[in-house]
Design the sequence.
């Protein structure tokens, strides 16, 4: 990290993360480098040779993410990608071969079933189990890779990362954790024993709904070299402008996360106290089934709240009358969004299941809007 004083607080780290050493008359955060190639006389021994392999703007962002996901740890490598699924795919396809076995969550991100189909077509065995109750432990024997998603999306179940990682390593398996929903300020999987931390930077890391990005952070040099090679082969690279925008946004991560997480808890509590039984899930609710484990490994509980309305029609009416919440997919942005998750058809959720991503609006305004919409949609 560049010179920025001895502070080690998370806000200080986020603001200073990945900045180069200051140079007189140069900007604190250099602008994006748009280059497909670089001056390269003689043998190609420098850091930057061709635009698909490296870019100075990526380098600054990768250092920033590494400092957030694994502060103070040596030997950590970070790679950025064009999207979260590009990052996910890079780990899975670089680490697995025909005949291997991978364990995936059965309740994870809706693109995982597509991934499963592709893996099986390559002769890789795929086993699944739910996130809750550490159920993946029961299907670990003989696996090469364990894929964990905690909190799970969209159900918000939580598993014990340290326990699962220790069990997987004892069986010779690698462990990857999707940290998208928690962010590095919510939990740090590498500190809990994971080999890879993977995330979609499209979500709360960048937080403005205007960048597609993914990343992988790992501690094993050989494994990360394979991930880097996969990125080179498939060309799943971010544009320099996207990388620069992401780095710019990271500076406000702690401010956004703290505001959004606090408001998410307020919304969850209001939904919990609503006269109807809504099946509210939020890991930060003391009454939530995931709270005990979440409180042991998470520093913050995320910005997503889920609940279920009795019918599809009721859910559609609820979404239609909201005024401060946009009906949109994805999550983590400064503007609140919500959707009836069943409309995509890829998640095993009831028709009335709502995934609400809490933004940075005033908590009182957002809670009032949600409760008003519940009331008006009940008629």
Sequence:
């Amino acid at each position: 990290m560049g010179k920025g004083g001895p502070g080690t607080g998370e806000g200080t780290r986020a603001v200073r993360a990945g900045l180069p050493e200051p140079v007189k008359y140069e900007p604190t955060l250099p602008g994006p480098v748009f280059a497909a190639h670089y001056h390269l006389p003689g043998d190609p021994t420098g850091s930057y040779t061709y635009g698909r392999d490296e870019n100075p703007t990526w380098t600054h962002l990768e250092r920033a993410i590494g400092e957030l996901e694994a502060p103070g740890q040596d030997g950590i490598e970070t790679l950025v990608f064009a999207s979260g699924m590009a990052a996910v795919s890079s780990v899975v396809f670089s680490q697995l071969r025909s005949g291997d076995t991978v364990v995936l969550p059965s309740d994870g991100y809706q693109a995982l079933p597509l991934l499963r189909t592709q893996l099986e077509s390559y002769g890789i065995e795929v086993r699944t189990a739910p996130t809750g109750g550490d159920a993946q432990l029961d299907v670990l024997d003989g696996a090469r890779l364990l894929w964990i998603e905690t909190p799970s999306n969209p159900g918000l179940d939580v598993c014990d990362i340290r326990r699962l990682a220790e069990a997987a390593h004892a069986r010779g398996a690698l462990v990857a954790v999707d940290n998208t929903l928690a962010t590095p300020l919510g939990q740090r999987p590498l500190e809990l024993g994971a080999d890879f931390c993977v995330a979609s930077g499209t979500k709360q890391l960048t937080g403005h709904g205007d960048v597609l990005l993914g990343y992988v952070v790992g501690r094993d040099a050989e494994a990360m070299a394979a991930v880097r090679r996969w990125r080179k082969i498939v060309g799943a690279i971010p544009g320099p402008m996207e990388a620069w925008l992401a780095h710019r946004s990271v500076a406000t991560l702690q401010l956004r996360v703290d505001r959004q997480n606090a408001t998410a808890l307020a919304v969850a509590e209001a939904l919990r106290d609503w006269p109807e039984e809504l099946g509210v899930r939020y890991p930060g609710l003391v009454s939530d089934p995931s709270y005990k484990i979440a409180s042991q490994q998470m520093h913050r509980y995320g910005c997503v709240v889920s609940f279920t309305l009795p019918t599809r029609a009721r859910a559609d009416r609820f979404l239609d009358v909201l005024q401060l919440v946009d009906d949109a997919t994805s999550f983590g942005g400064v503007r609140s969004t919500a959707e009836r998750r069943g409309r995509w058809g890829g998640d095993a959720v009831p028709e009335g299941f709502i995934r609400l991503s809490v933004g940075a609006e005033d908590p009182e305004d957002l809670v009032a809007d949600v409760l008003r919409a519940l009331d008006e949609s009940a008629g």
